[in-house]
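re: ur question from yesterday

yeah so i grabbed the chain u mentioned. its 120 aa long if i counted rite. heres the sequnce exactly as i have it in my notes:
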Amino acid sequence: MTDRVIDLTDRGTEQPILDLLEAITAASLERSSLDPRTLMLTRLAALVAVGAPPLSYLGNLAVADEVGITADDVQGVLAAVAPIVGTTRVVAASGDIGRALGIAIVVADEAEMAGGSADD
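ran it thru and got these structure tokens back, copy pasting raw so excuse formatting
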């Protein structure tokens, strides 16, 4: 038995984990009766409640931006869930959201330096 690390993101064009997550998300969106804005605010509240990592915020904040959710809306969600999930969870979520936005900036900068865009 070898001590090797399995990289789930390095499979050439195959992305089984990312594909699975995309399929689960699509199924959730199809079955929800919520409008897109309410759905994304709810998803952000759930991410805070479960202590989601920065990359979970990254994907959801990109979609949230597309449906018109603002920084004030995100702050409103954090304030709304604080009494339920606790201040430490909200503070951690704030830091993770900041890290997610930092990741997005780095990706955009690297794409710009490579002569493309982050959406390529």
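noticed a couple things. The CA atoms of residues 26 and 113 lie 32 Å apart. also The helical segments are 16-31, 36-50, 54-66, 71-85, 87-113.
anyway ttyl
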